[in-house]
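Entry 14. Two folds queued back to back today. First construct below, sequence then structure tokens.
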Amino acid sequence: MKRAARISVSLIWLWLLPATLVSAQNAKLPDGFVYLNDLAPDIVVELRYASSNNFIGRPIDGYRSSRCIITRPAAEALKKVEAALKPFGLGLKVFDAYRPQQAVDDFVRWARDIGDTRMKQAYYPNVDKKNLFPDGYIAEKSSHSRGSTVDLTIISLNGDTGKELDMGTGFDFFGPESWPDNLHMTPSQRSHRMLLRELMKQYGFAPYDKEWWHFTLTGEPFPTIWFNFPVQ
């Protein structure tokens, strides 16, 4: 009788749990995808689009949690990059990886709302918002939705643990200052960008010539599929 009562109480407790929590715990990723920290627990994740700390200034549609999702081959390659950095007291911080199409659609709607410029000074001070589409900063499709593109930087593991190396601009800064080969950076900033780029290339990622933080796995497993399941 006591055992039956315990089971009954447990079932009631489970029923009372918030639906979002139960959903997140039971969420099954599509085949080929993993949670990055399940494979590489020491990589720091700061999923910007799940927060208000981004160029729009609010959480983005499709980001229901701050768990980083990525394809398994990309996660395994990132783990190798992290291992190469660790002996030098350095690590990785990921800002974004898999991005659902609904999030990209949210970016597009925001870009068309010319009056919403609350984050302009921090993210695009020298770019007129009406030019975000023509200049290629916002697009209707993103390689992130294929699951093997990642936005990241290098951090210190010693002294100021977690401090990002100075790359000359922050993540998602719109402008030529963010181009990896921009010559107006200091030698230190350029060397940090080069370190990140060369290590990522060594372990199978291709850089993007307009964003120092953006890399796509060569031979990605889903080169023609743009996914739309939420981040949860």
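Second construct, same run, same settings:
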Amino acid sequence: MNAIIISVGTELTSGQTVDTNSAWLSSKLAEIGIPVLLHVTAPDDVEPLSRQIETACAQADLVLVTGGLGPTADDLTREALAQVMGVELQIDPALAEQVRAFFARLNRPMPEANLVQAMLPVGSRPLENTCGTAPGIHTRIGSTKVFVMPGVPREMQIMYEQFVLPQLPRQDTGSVILNAVLYCFGAGESEIGQSIYDLMRRGRNPLVGTTAKQGIIGIRILARASTAIEARNLLEDEIKEIRHRLGPLVFGRDDETLAHAVASRMIANNKTLATAESCTGGLIAKTLTDIPGSSAFYSQGWITYANEAKIRLLNVPADLIESHGAVSRPVAAAMAVNARRLAETDYAISVTGIAGPAGGTPDKPVGLVYVGLAEPNHCEVTQLRLGNHLNREEIRWRTTCTVLNFLRLRLMTDR
């Protein structure tokens, strides 16, 4: 069996949204030995979409389609599928009741437009959606199995795991593929690449490659073997070797972020944290509190953008700002020390800097940031010069990652 994946949405073909569903589905199919021939992206338009479905069914044994199952006028995947099948759409009474029940559970009136989500091509079967209103569709076109799922990643992933995967064969093709990604921070891609140069040789198994995004280096590992157990062993041995070579540069695997790494160590070490932010505008606090269970370690934070706020809320001496400027080592230290004292936490981190695009001077250019890390009886301040080649968003995000990494490394030595 082989497969083609079709992602539907004009937002994808226009570049407004990046298609992540195809990559996720490809990795899942690889785990059961089903190779993917093509990723296809089609707009919300019946004619081109129906042509792509028809072509895919002529080329592959399995076609997975995501997107275009919503209730609005541009959700046309049902119509395109019905056109390829040569049948009409009809309301499924049981599905209509499920859609109504979904809105009833939310105590919200159901727009009549949502009933379109209960329509199926004649001869097809529904796939239950346990976390949304759009049921999926299962049918066969010729000898090809076709599964249509929502475009919302979480809904698609749950539907695939619960209702599509059980209907797919696990193929003993002699080529089971498993993959993983390790994430690093604190060194450039070239430096990390040099440390694992021999592992990145073309033709190796596992295959290793790197990517870079906003200072975070991803190391992709793809292991191929005749059985899942052999592939898993190859993958884990390679991961162990890379971790050994790179040490604390590696902060996470697959879905783990820097914030996850900090959260797990804060909780394991039974420590608490406060934040005091200027140029990042609350991004550090937001990133940490995105983690479920962050209330176990994160106490509170201040966004003191204006000098007056630093003075009034964090008790930063006015003469300190007057003498050194808000973007300075002494002010970063005062922000961190006072935040920790006021919040009564084990740690506090502070940031003050110039995110641009304006506000820089020859002495204090755009991209200059001071980071404070306070703990009992000690405060360390680090100067960052991120460069004015980065835009405002990049400077704020790079600062946030650097701050979290400083804290992660400190927690690794705190027992």
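Quick look at the second one. The longest strand covers residues 216-225. The radius of gyration is 26 Å.
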